[in-house]
Structures are given as C-alpha cells and as structure tokens.
Design brief:
single chain; binds nicotinamide-adenine-dinucleotide; globular; 23 helices; 18 strands
C-alpha cells in the first residue's frame, strides 16, 4: 500500500495545499434555511465506508480530528457535508474579473457555482442544495473547494471531469472541447432506484443534480417564472378558451409550493394577469416570496384566501395570495363550499415525497421535519394517505369543471405509488399514462417543444445591470412578434422583464425561443461582446426543453410511439453538444421528477466574442434543439414534422432529418384486428 505522504506528493492540488491548517468550523448564519435530516439507514459496514470515502479528500494529518466530526454529520444529518470546509459567510456571484483563472470559462463557471449556493438563491445553501429539495451543486464542501481550485488552474487545453460532484481531475483536451464535463447520479439500470440512490448519496458516491443545480446553470426562480407563465397562459388558451391575444384576467389558478421552483407560481400568474392562491406549509418560504414581492397577501384562513381572490377576479385585477397551510385542506374547503377553480396544479416536491418533499395533511411543517428524523416508516403512510385524499379532492373539482394538470413534479406517479390504481389510464400501471394529463402532454409539448421553443437563458458575467438591459433589447430585436403567438408572448415577456424585477442573484434572463431564434440571439450577443458593447455572457438552458431530456412523466410526456421509456435523445444531446464545443456539458439522472424517472442534460456556453464561439453557436445551438424536434417528429408529432420539414429545406446540404411516413390508422387497425381474431381461433 502507498503511504499518504507519497500520495500527497503525487498531487499538486489537494486540500492540504489549499489550507495550511484545518479551517475553523464556520458559524452558521441564523435564519438561513437548513436541509432536513436525510434519514440515516446505512449499515455499520457502510458507515465505515462512507467515512473512509469522505476522508479521501483530506490529508491524513487531519483524519483523527475529522473522522468523529464527519461521523457525527452522517448520523445527525444523514450525509457528510464537510461543513468545516465551507467558506464562511455569504457566497455570491462576483463580477467575472474578480475570479482567478487561466481561461475565461474557468472564471465563468466559478461565478455560476457561487450563484448556486448564494443564501438568497439556494434552497439549503449550507447543504449545497440549490433547488428541488435535493438538487445539489456537489455532495460536500471538500468537493466544492477542489472544484473551485481546479477551475482556477484550468487552461483552454484541459477539461475538468466531475462525476456526481467529485472532481475526477483535469485531463488534456483541446480549445474546441468542453472545459467541463459533468455527470450526476448516473446509476446502473438494475440499481437505478430510490433506495440504492439513498444509500449511494449517504456513502458519498452519488449526487442528485436536478439539472441546473448540478449543471451550475441555476438563475433563481426567474428561470421557472417564464416557463410557468407560458404554461398557465397557454393552459388558459387551450382549456378555458382564452383568445391568443388575451391573458388570464378574471381567472383563478390554485396550486401548492412556494419553494425553489414552485415559488415562481404566484408571480407568473400575476404577470399573466390572473389571480393565484398558492398553498405553502413552510412559513420561511412564504416570507422569502413576500420579501421579493412575488406574493402580495398571506392568510391562514382558506375562506379569506378565496374571498380575496374572488374580489380581484371580479375587478379583473391580478394578485398572488399565499395560503399558509396544507394544499389538501385548501382543496377540501373549495370542494365543501363549491368554489370554482379554473386552473389547478401542484408543485410540492413529489419527485421525493418520502424524503420531505410532500408534507402530509394533519401535521405541521415542523412536525413533518421531526418525523423525518425519527419515524420514517409511519411518515410514509401519512404521506400516502394525504396523497390519496389530495387526489379525491382533485377528482371532485375536475368533475365540476376545473382543469387539473400535473406540473412535472411526479405528482400523478406519487398518487399511483400511494396505491391509487384508478389514476392509470389502463387501471393498473402508468405505462399508458394517467387519467389526468401532465402539462407537457397537453400544453407545453404540442404548443412549444414540438416547434423547438424552449428555455434560452443567459447570465451577464460582468454583473452589470446595463449589460442585462442591452441584451434584453438585443433579444427583442431578434424576435418577430408577428411570426407566431409563441413569439409574441416572448416578445412581451422580454419587453416587460426589467419592469417585472425578476433578477435574484446573478444578472440573468430567460425566455423561450426556437432553434433558429436561439442561434440568432446567441450570435448577436457574441457580436456585442466582440465589439465591447457588453462584457462576456454565459448561455445555457434548463432541462425543461425540447431535446435535452428524456422524462416520460414530463418533458417527453407527449411522445406516443413507445419510445418515451428510452433515454437515447438526452444522451445524444449531451454527446453532440460536447462534440460541437459547448463550454460545459452535463448529464443527470432524475432531474425534476426523481431518480430513475428521467435522464436529462444541459449545457453552458461562454460567449467571449471570438469567431471560434460564433462557429460553436452555429453548430451546437441548432443541434441542441433540433435533435429533440427530430425525435419528436419521428414519434409522429405533427408540429415537429412541420418544423423538421422546414428545417430540412433551410439547412439543405448541412443537416438532414429522417421523417416518418404515416401509416393509415384504419388499415393498420383492421389488419391487426383480423390477425388477433385469427390467433384466438
Ligand atoms: N414545472 C416545472 O417546470 C418544474 C421545474 C422544476 C421543478 N419542478 C418540480 O416541482 C417540484 C417543486 O420544486 P421546488 O424547487 O419548488 O421544490 P421545493 O422543495 O423547493 O418546494 C416545494 C414546496 O412545497 C411545499 N409543500 C410540500 N408539501 C406541501 C403540502 N402538502 N401543502 C403545501 N405545501 C407543501 C414545501 O414546503 C416546499 O416549500 C419538484 O418536484 C420539482 O422537481 C417542476
């Protein structure tokens, strides 16, 4: 066996180099939200393994001091976070020139990571959880420190490899290659489930990255506000008969969750002109949204909430009301009092209902937190009972005319897992989908993703407000609002973005565009960087998109050729983006819906103003989108076929999409029916 002394000598970069002495345990700032205890369930042998795994990051001279500390963290929080290595105090995204580095990408990524753990941005900053209850930047602060250090030394001939938060190291590549390649929680098929992931997380070998947490592209709830705005606005158009040039004025939207992503719901409904009541059990999250002005009223009284809403509906005024209480209680009140709800959804963290994502009816948020720590088995039964009751209320409201949609949080799947078989279309399993639709199946898929419309986000790395305003104006100039209603919605969105004060954390913006729109805007921004009109910009997206995500209960819910259980598209998207020179590529398991239920990827592209980056934009951005449109077209989605046909014409000589010939339904049905009749004989 090698001696630790030799191992230390063999590395130029390790925690012993970064710290001359063991850093002091930082003081925890009061009122910063802390992650609940993740149920500890490791065996004695696995506990030893987890300790040895964590100690790999620190020189042996500190092992006797750190081993008991790490063990205590594991036993009391369910994870080893290595709090001692967290930089003390607030961490915020600085202007890019404040970061050390040998290449612009290395500096840009540091800025993006810092934003993901900012007290004002992250859900549980001390536990590196950016959003979605469990979505982490990396597993622990030792990894965080090493990643930051690697990014300081990274050159444009190297690639940093990050596997589930662990920086495997720097490897020689080329300026055309990505500067960082990230994967998170990619588990081998037969182990790809919640139980094995829970063990792997506790052992310190898996990281649940959601998408923009572990892919370092989170831009605060603004990222989701726009998607939420689009979803409820288009739900109104498709289901309530609202004309394309009108908004949600006079209509009521009810949902739950004011957390990381769900926190966008009230504000999005307001921007869309509607009235929202959002239920939330954790007052600290309501307070955050109140402080931001994303919620205007709070009440614990369901009657008061609905009265406030009704008054605003009648006056055609928009308002976002927080109901401090459980969503099931709120819906029971609506059912009992025959209150008309136009649009209904849910955004509790149902991708992880038993990990604390769903607070059962009948107990407070604080009691739920205590139960998570002590009585996990009983807690699961409470969650299941609550989900069943929740479903009953939704069913009654839907029968009375409410349009309910699953918001991509695995709510319908959670209800099914709680024992409700009738929620499945085939009455037994989710293979043919659920009786209620997911918002992608019904709204976002056919109206947006099939055309290639999806999230286009950017961060002005200078940190200057004026750069953001300039990019807003430039993006508007690139959009023709009269092309389609999707373009008009996005034009209006960008026009009002600064007025709506959506920025939390880094100077970022988001809106939806299709493949050519995204490419055009990216080229324009890069030109502005080149002419020094603005500082460098980091482009990216979330996973809520056309091509980067295979997620049968969400992004790919409107894929009906049976391939919704395949993850080829997301994997190809990731590999293709790497091959075409994106600055950062990421591939994750579970983003948005939970482990084993999705494979999703993302990218980051640093616009440095160079001609090289112009070429990357032209190659990579259309691929990132059109790989998804092409797959949707092959699944016979009509709008995708139309988009792909136009693309084949537009990019003749460079790109070519295989299109499906459409079989005659009646001919196939008759033939198969005859064959089955024959087989019965
Ligand atoms: N629709 C989308 O585009 C989209 C995007 C990202 C995430 N998601 C999914 O939405 C879910 C929420 O994401 P998030 O980042 O907001 O998570 P989060 O955990 O930060 O927020 C969920 C909130 O729901 C509250 N809650 C839980 N049970 C409740 C109950 N019974 N009644 C009222 N409130 C309750 C929690 O206190 C929490 O604040 C996740 O499953 C996530 O994967 C959806």
């Amino acid at each position: 066996m090698f001696k630790n002394m030799d191992i230390a000598k063999a590395m130029e970069l390790h925690l012993g180099e970064i710290f001359s002495e063991l850093p002091k345990m930082p003081k925890f700032v009061k009122n910063v939200r802390r992650a609940p205890t993740r149920h500890f369930s490791l065996s004695q042998q696995d506990t030893e393994l987890a300790l040895k795994n964590a100690l790999r990051y620190v020189p042996d001279k500190w092992h006797t001091k750190l081993a008991p500390e790490f063990l205590d963290e594991l036993l009391t929080t369910g994870r080893i976070y290595g709090y001692r290595f967290r930089p003390p105090g607030q961490i915020t995204a600085e202007a890019i020139d404040q970061y050390k580095g040998n290449c612009i990408e290395g500096k840009a990524f540091q800025l993006m990571i810092d934003n993901n753990v900012d007290f004002d941005v992250a859900l549980y900053p001390y536990e590196l959880v950016t959003y979605g209850e469990t979505g982490q930047v990396c597993q622990n602060w030792m990894q965080f420190r090493l990643i930051k250090k690697y990014l300081e030394t990274l050159t444009c001939d190297q690639t940093l490899v990050v596997e589930s938060g662990h920086p495997l190291g720097l490897f020689m590549s080329s300026p055309e290659a990505p500067r960082a390649i990230i994967t998170n929680a990619l588990m081998v098929g037969c182990f790809d489930d919640q139980e094995n992931w829970h063990r792997a997380m506790a052992l310190g070998v898996a990281n649940y990255g959601q998408m923009t947490a572990g892919g370092w592209m989170y831009i605060g709830p603004q990222g989701i506000i726009h998607g939420t705005y689009s979803t409820i606005l288009n739900a109104g158009r498709a289901k309530l008969g609202i004309p394309a040039d009108k908004n949600l004025s006079g209509y009521l939207f009810v949902s739950s969750g004011l957390g990381g992503m769900s926190g966008a719901q009230g504000r999005a409904a307001e921007i869309a002109g509607g009235v929202a009541i959002i239920s939330e059990v954790d007052y600290s999250r309501i307070q955050t949204r109140l402080d931001q002005g994303w919620i205007s009223k709070v009440t614990e009284d369901a009657q008061e909430a609905f009265e406030l809403a009704k008054a605003c509906q009648e006056q055609k005024e928009s308002i976002a009301v927080a109901f401090y209480g459980n969503i099931v209680d709120l819906l029971e009140f609506a059912v009992k009092n025959n209150i008309a709800i136009d649009l209904l959804s849910d955004q509790t963290s149902c991708h992880a209902p038993y990990e604390g994502g769903y607070c059962p009816q009948g107990i407070s948020f604080e009691e739920r937190t205590a139960l998570l720590k002590s009585g996990h088995a009983g807690f699961k039964e409470m969650v299941d009972a609550s989900l069943r009751r929740h479903y009953e209320m939704i069913k009654i409201l839907a029968e009375r005319g409410t349009y309910f949609f699953d918001y991509g949080n695995s709510f319908l799947k959670a209800v099914y897992d709680a024992g409700v078989r009738e929620i499945c279309k085939n009455g037994k399993d989710p293979l043919d989908g659920f009786t209620f639709q997911s918002y992608v199946e019904d709204i976002m898929g056919p109206l947006l993703f099939d055309y290639g419309y999806g999230p286009f986000r950017w961060v002005c790395l200078s940190g200057k407000e004026e750069d953001l305003l300039k990019t807003d104006r430039a993006a508007m100039e690139c959009i023709d609002p009269d092309r389609r209603f999707q373009d008009r919605d996005n034009y209006v969105w960008i026009k009002d973005a600064a007025k709506n004060k959506l920025v939390v954390g880094s100077k970022a913006r988001i809106f939806y565009q299709d493949a050519t729109g995204r490419m055009k805007i990216a080229l324009k921004f890069n030109e502005m960087v080149r002419s020094e009109e603005i500082g460098p910009v980091m482009l990216g997206r979330d996973h809520h998109d056309t091509g980067g995500t295979d997620s049968p209960f969400r992004e790919t819910a409107n894929i009906k050729d049976g391939s919704n259980i395949m993850a080829d598209m997301a994997t190809q998207c990731f590999a293709g983006n790497a091959a075409r020179g994106m600055s950062l590529v990421a591939l994750h398991n579970g983003g948005g819906v939970g482990i084993g239920k999705a494979i999703n990827g993302g990218f980051g592209l640093v616009l440095d103003g160079s001609r090289r980056v112009d070429e990357v934009i032209k190659r990579a951005i259309p691929w990132d989108v059109m790989g998804g449109v092409a797959r949707r077209a092959w699944a016979r989605n009509e709008n995708s076929i139309e988009t792909s046909m136009k693309y084949n014409e537009l990019r003749r000589g460079t790109d070519h999409i295989t299109l499906p010939f459409i079989a005659d339904d009646k001919m196939v049905a008759r033939l198969v029916s005859d064959a089955f009749e024959h087989m019965k004989k």
